[in-house]
Write a structure and sequence with these properties.
It contains 24 helices and 29 strands. It has about 850 residues and is α+β, with helices and mostly antiparallel strands. A hairpin with a 2-residue loop joins strand 14 (about 320-325) and strand 15 (about 330-335). The protein is elongated and about 125 Å long.
């Protein structure tokens, strides 16, 4: 025996009322249907005299709305007190529900659109069949819109909104249809087949139907649109107690229903007769060049290529000067010095590239999203996005354009967040207020890396409120990005994760681009302020010196008089020269302590990397050392005093001594690399000859690298001992050279070449010293091709298990010692160049 499945009436309730989380979402479903029907206008009318069951109300309020019969019934729940009707206490839950039912039956929402409407055969078939939709096969509208719905359940949003729903619909060639259903049938019926809707044709035109259901003010507001065809819903009584929060949510959802710059006319009018301040109509929002600081365009080809176009509009290259302050002193510096720095010598950071130019970055997605299943990546499908970074306040940086604050704030009021659109219709709730406003987790990224944009080492991350824009997907191209059953967003499958990750990577490229310029400005401003501070310090030293000499001559005065005769008043307090000098000396001592602590930490990190790199060699040495003493003891015990050894040859200790000598040689070299730099005097800053120091360090390294068949080639062949004089701590040179060699060794060991070389050159010009370090290993990964300086950020590494500390420490040391470090543009290896001003 075969038995058919039956669908319970409760299933429809699960699909409709209980599956849609909020009434504004249900209303959005009706508007989405209007869009699919090629409507150019949707009119929403809220008439809700009772947003709640009032506890106190004037008699006129009830009498002006309720019928005489309902007024009599309502008076059973209220009593008159001081001219007001006050709700009685102690009424039962059943009575409260009855009171709400009577009042809420006067609440009504009307939704009318001028779309193509539906004939009788569609109403009686597709419209009445759950999970059946003509949009599955007929996905393109007459106007060419890709229809957004396909599940065939959006109509059950009506159950979420009202107890009873009436629909009038008129197509081009057929009569108007009146459709009505009472959704409470689903409560009493067992099976879905027991639930009915009343459907009938009418002779009325659609204009006449509108005339009967809308007042003159409503008709006037939509009169410029054609209304020969369309659909109108009368929803009453309403289920929910509507309030200002829900009205605001509806408007927030509607204000960005059209993508930025959309040319497809789709207007939504909201008339709120209960709270007129929430009356609304959609506005067209477009972004002009003056409205944004950065524009980021993203295109994914659906295979593996992500194209990112970045347009800068934040910086003013026409400004001539920057003004910096040190204490009470101000000084003006020409910005031409800034724009001609080495950081701006190459594209895409030439000075001429900065203002308004667009540069393109092309990435292979699998370089930053490792995936064993490429089909999941391709299942994302092709998509595009246009994002804008918008500041709405003034900047303190002299290279930044002035911001039209009022205009920017108006744009952010009209369009906020990053919205998601499928075929030009908004997918809610992405970018709307609530948990999905920041669906790309921009704030989460920023909280993990809270550095400012000009921070020299921490990575700046943009905040969600600073970005607006649109992400465009398609029902045709992005089949893996589909709605959840409750229409509250996309299903978060693996393809959705890849989709979000690609957008985050595009935003990260913009963040790097912006911070690159601000970081360089911070370096330049610091150098300018240091020049000012150096001058101020010399003046201060002169004053203090002469003051002390003068102070010491006044021997006839008492100690107290001497102390205060030359006292200086600072911040309302008086300090003697002695106190001032002692304070300065204490601050300098603490600064020196902090510097030494930082240097020690840097060296400890380097030592850890060394241990990791030479782990196998060290382990082999450890094995030999663990048996050396016992072996020597056995042999020495067999020796006869100081007499020449005459025993068995295999017990001859002198044969082992050669092995121990080699082992000690390697161990000594390793210990030299690890420990030489932390000798007490190495952290003191003093004038040294770089040529001499490099020879010293490289001599040690050559012993170690012989075993790995890696050569160190220098230019000149040997650095002159008195070459390139520089004021710097020896420990800083160790950190720079050790980390570069360690990084090179790791990559060179993976290269099967006849020669594996590390090249180091040292050159001197009139005012500058250059150190260039290179290797003939693999070039910088494609991942960093368009943002090479990113490799110096902490945590960035091309090694699978790398810490991202080595190059970061190098940059830390170089910049702390007033140098500049850059990557060389190489395709046959990896290299950096360091520049110090003498």
């Amino acid at each position: 025996m075969k038995v058919n499945f039956e669908v319970s009436a409760k299933a429809a309730r699960l699909i409709g009322r209980e599956n849609i989380s909020d009434v504004d979402g249900a209303l959005s479903e009706l508007i989405k249907n209007a869009y699919d029907a090629d409507a150019s206008c949707v009119y929403v009318d809220f008439y809700i005299p009772f947003t709640e069951v009032p506890s106190q109300v004037t008699p006129d309020r009830f009498s002006s709305v309720l019928t005489a019969t309902d007024l009599v019934e309502i008076m059973n729940f209220y009593h008159l007190e001081n001219g007001y009707l006050v709700r009685k206490e102690g009424i039962s839950d059943k009575e409260k529900q009855r009171l709400q039912d009577v009042l809420f039956r006067y609440n009504r929402i009307i939704v009318a659109d001028n779309g193509e409407g539906m004939p009788m055969d569609i109403v009686s078939s597709s419209w009445m069949q759950i999970a059946t939709s003509s949009k599955e096969s007929d996905i393109e509208s007459t106007k060419g819109r890709i229809k957004t719905g396909a599940k065939g359940i959006g109509r059950f949003a009506l159950d979420k909104l009202s107890v009873r729903s009436v629909m009038y619909t008129k197509s081009q060639t057929k009569r108007a249809i009146r459709w009505e259903v009472n959704w409470d049938q689903f409560t009493n019926a067992q099976l879905l087949s027991e639930v009915y809707a009343d459907v009938q044709e009418t002779e009325d035109t659609f204009e006449k139907i509108l005339y009967h259901n809308l007042d003159s003010e409503a008709l006037e507001s939509i009169s410029k649109f054609p209304w020969k065809t369309g659909t109108i819903f009368i929803l009453s009584p309403l289920r929910e107690a509507w309030n200002s929060r829900l009205f605001a949510k509806v408007n927030t959802n509607l204000k960005s229903i059209n993508p930025l710059g959309s040319v497809d006319e789709f207007n939504v009018f909201v008339r709120n007769r209960t709270m007129p301040e929430y009356s609304y109509r959609t506005e067209k929002v477009s972004i002009a060049k003056n409205d944004y600081d950065y524009r980021i365009k993203v295109d994914f080809d659906g295979n593996n290529t992500l194209k990112i176009k970045i347009t800068r509009n934040e910086f003013d290259i026409s400004k001539k000067y920057a003004i910096f302050s040190v204490g009470e002193t101000e000084q003006r510096f020409p910005l031409s010095e800034f724009w001609t720095r080495a950081a701006f010598s190459k594209a895409p950071f030439h000075k001429t590239d900065i203002d308004g130019k667009t540069h393109e970055i092309i990435l292979s997605v699998d370089t930053f999203i490792p995936s064993e299943d490429k089909d999941l990546l391709r299942a994302v499908g092709s998509y595009s996005a246009e994002l804008f970074f918008i500041k709405n306040g003034k900047s303190d940086f002299d290279i930044v354009k002035d911001v039209p604050v009022r205009q920017r704030r108006d744009i952010l009021r009209r369009f906020s967040g990053i919205k998601l659109y499928r075929d030009n219709f908004k997918v809610r709730p992405y970018g709307d207020e609530g948990v999905m406003f920041d669906w790309l987790d921009l704030d989460g990224r920023a909280n993990k890396s809270p550095a400012g944009v000009s921070h020299l080492h921490g990575q700046w991350r943009v905040r969600s409120y600073q970005m607006i824009g649109v992400v465009n997907i398609s029902r045709i191209e992005n089949i893996a990005l589909y709605d959840m059953a409750n229409r509250e967003g996309l299903t978060q499958n693996e393809s959705y994760y890849y989709f979000v990750r690609m957008l985050q990577e595009a935003i990260a490229r913009f963040e790097y681009d912006r911070q690159y310029i601000y970081r360089e400005y911070a370096r330049w401003s610091n150098s300018c302020k240091e020049k000012m501070a150096t001058t101020a310090k010399r003046i201060e030293e002169d004053v203090l010196t002469h003051g002390v000499e003068k102070f010491s001559k006044k021997s006839e005065k008492s100690e107290k008089e001497r102390n205060y005769s030359n006292a200086e008043e600072i911040g309302g307090a008086r300090f003697t020269e002695r106190e001032y000098r002692e304070t300065v000396e204490e601050l300098l001592r603490k600064e020196k302590q902090n510097l030494k602590a930082k240097q020690t930490l840097e060296l400890i990190s380097s030592a850890g990397v060394i241990l990791n790199t030479f782990f196998h060699e060290f382990k082999a040495l450890q094995t030999q050392l663990s048996t050396r003493v016992s072996q020597m003891r056995v042999r020495i015990d067999n020796l006869l005093g100081n007499k020449p050894y005459q025993g068995k040859s295999f017990l001859n200790p002198y044969e082992k001594l050669a092995d121990f000598e080699y082992t000690d040689k390697i161990l000594s070299a390793w210990l030299q690399v690890a420990m030489r730099a932390i000798e007490k005097d190495k952290s003191d800053e003093k004038e040294i000859f770089l040529g001499n120091k490099l020879n010293e360090i490289l001599t040690i390294w050559r012993k170690l690298l012989e075993e790995k068949c890696i050569n160190i080639v220098t230019y000149p062949v040997e650095f002159p001992q008195d070459f390139c004089k520089l004021c710097i701590a020896s420990v800083d040179i160790y950190v720079i050279v050790n980390n570069f060699i360690l990084n090179s060794v790791w990559f060179l060991e993976k290269e099967f070449k006849k020669e594996r070389n590390i090249y180091i050159s040292l050159t001197e010009q009139k005012k500058e010293i250059f150190v260039r370090m290179e290797n003939n290993g693999p070039p910088l990964s494609e991942r960093y091709r368009d943002s090479p300086m990113q490799i110096f950020n902490i945590g960035e590494s091309e090694k699978k298990d790398g810490t991202g500390l080595g190059l970061f420490l190098m940059r830390e040391v170089v910049e702390r010692t007033n140098g500049e470090i850059y990557l060389l543009d190489k395709t046959d290896g990896f290299g950096i160049e360091i520049k110090w001003i003498k």
